[in-house]
User: Fold these one by one.
Assistant:
Number 1:
Amino acid sequence: MTSPTDLSLVEDDDAQARFDELVAHEQRIEPRDWMPEAYRKTLIRQISQHAHSEIIGMQPEGNWITRAPSLKRKAILMAKVQDEAGHGLYLYSAAQTLGITRDTMTQQLIDGKAKYSSIFNYPTPTWADMGAIGWLVDGAAIVNQVPLCRASYGPYGRAMVRICKEESFHQRQGFEILLQLMQGTDEQREMAQDAVNRWYWPSLAMFGPPDDESPNSAQSMKWKIKRFSNDALRQRFVGMLVPQAEILGITLPDPELRYNEETGAYDMGEIDWDEFYEVLRGNGPCNAERIERRRTAHEEGAWVREAAAEYARKQALRAKEVA
Ligand code: FAQ
């Protein structure tokens, strides 16, 4: 005789087999589908961290909106920073389909318990930083995120399609800022080079730890959330940067960087992983400032949330009265 517990086991086995088949055949897993608990957890982890990165990532550039060198630059930068807010919203929505609430995610972020990309804990002291962020940070984001458009989880993959289109514009605007500076005065060229010197290494660290120190990669690749390893994407990014740096006339600050004919890949200097892990532990140059700013913005925005909730309540009441 089969007990109820055994029956649920049989059901889980069938469900697991269906899940495996969907993943194997490049079909999408949707919120209504059964999924292993570990798959759900991994997605919540990655998508929420990604959403937080977009929202915290507004701060380093927000720093320059009031000081952009022209009205046109200001309008472009404002549009870009607003795009990042939009990316955060699509991603929070995608994570919510997995059963976590937006409030929980926000609380985790402002309590300093959630991770977000290491890159956003560095300061932006000059206008050239807007160029370096666009070129390097958005450039790295595109290389990392284009494969995520094919992520096995439907809502994540679909959110990524639109995000990548916008990141592409962001990368070009950064490149164009640097190009203009490089065609300017000696001082402007120095400012552009200095910004690239400061952002280059942290942008390489965005791809995550080396493959042999990346605990999540193997399983995420089996589930077809990630399609390429951290090192493979880092290598692809550097390959993309080299010809663009030549056009800019900018030097990538790695004396060991050279193309290796034998391996068909770039040899590179060592990334400072101690610095990376320090930033992850909350000890980067701007971690405390970023979280404090987000917490304050959240508190100052309480009245907007209350007003929106009250408006929704009244609308629902009115709809009920009409019906
Ligand atoms: N920073 O085992 P793995 C943007 C953590 S958006 C902080 O390799 P996984 C747009 C990792 O979470 C940028 N933490 O992990 C923009 C894990 O910790 P956990 C964000 C990092 O998930 C531009 C641990 O280390 N992009 O730039 C970092 O397989 C301009 C072990 O690592 C995304 O989130 C890091 N750099 O691979 C916005 C893309 N790297 O959770 C504004 C989606 C690793 O076990 C302005 N995410 N960690 O405690 C991904 O592709 C992956 O999650 C990786 C990490 C590749 C980031």
Number 2:
Amino acid sequence: MSAPAPFDAIILGAGGAGLMCAAVAAQRGRKVLVIDHAPDPGRKILISGGGRCNFTNLGAAPDRYLSANPHFARSALARYTAQDFLELVGKHRIAWHEKTLGQLFCDGSAQQIVRMLLDEAAAATIRCDTPVRDVSHNGTRFRVVAGDREVEAPSLVIATGGPSIPKLGATGFAYELAKRFGLRLVEPRPALVPLTLGGEEALFRELSGVATPVEARCGGAAFREAALFTHKGMSGPAILQVSSYWRHGQAVAIDFLPQAASGWLRETKRQRPRARLPAVLGEQLPGRLADTLAERLGIASELGNAPDKALEAAERRLSDWRFEPNGTEGFAKAEVTVGGISTADLSQQTMEARKVPGLFVIGEAVDVTGWLGGYNFQWAWASGVAAGQAL
Ligand code: FDA
């Protein structure tokens, strides 16, 4: 085994947060080593946004993030904004576009973002395909045994992300390290993940492939986007968003007609008493969904023969249809992890552990989770910059 090499900082994880942190620290003249067990850096960036990387969101404010401490992300997000990242993207002449809801994507390929980060971090040493075998701390320096080498430095950055999508190299290693260094954990759960339906509701799985715009509500959050029925349950952006707020035993409420005015069904009865519910719903919803909902509402007759009270009840149910998912599709399908290393043990200015000077935690490993739509990368960049400026 070769002699320990001198570095100012060792960053574990060459994802978005680790690479951004390496770039900032190396440009400040720090001698930085990045270690990753995956064969290449930035694998999640490469597959993100359908290969075009939704690299930030123009609305990336702290209220778009979940954390046990909703204020924790404020400082880092204010000091490194979506505009700051756009400047970097502009400097590297990467063309981009806004798709919807402030979500910014590359015109070309996510590879451009990885290339940009590697160029920015050119002064850092990046070792991929290097499993980390041991990490220890003697009170002043961190020692890492990785691959066939041993390295040490006064600073160590945990940037190994969360356990979502293990086949991309994701692990719960950050949590193991946290425990070793006495940092607390907020229970990690799969987030931005499809929900599964069982029992009576499994019948909705027959609608697999049907998508429609809805308002989905859970845990005090509400999202107006598309929902998609799948062969296991429900997905689509609205469902992925509420999944981050969902806990076992809770219901997810769906408004299938979020644009409809109150009393619309009674009004339809007055104007078209001979119309039937499946046809009326089918004017606003996909046919298969309209048929299933009408069947479950049990209004088979012409609207003119249905009592107003029944139509009012149907309308209420359509705007607040309760599903009780029996689970999620788990970390294998989750875009991110909600929970993680507790922010209570970290400085919100620098991401440094309060009780272990020199130890930093950034990116998805931290208990800060963004909504769908570029928010998670913005947190990776912002927390990486905060630590990179402090190393
Ligand atoms: P990240 O997981 O990116 O990096 C961690 C690194 O640590 C990896 O390179 C991994 O190999 C390495 N590592 C893990 N364990 C290790 C160990 N034991 N030893 C050594 N190295 C180890 N977000 C967004 O804002 N816009 C988007 O478009 C998308 N799209 C998207 C699609 C899909 C399919 C997924 C799974 C996720 C997204 N995301 C997203 C979320 C986004 O990818 C995620 O929030 C960031 O990649 C987190 O960045 P980090 O650097 O913290 O972790």
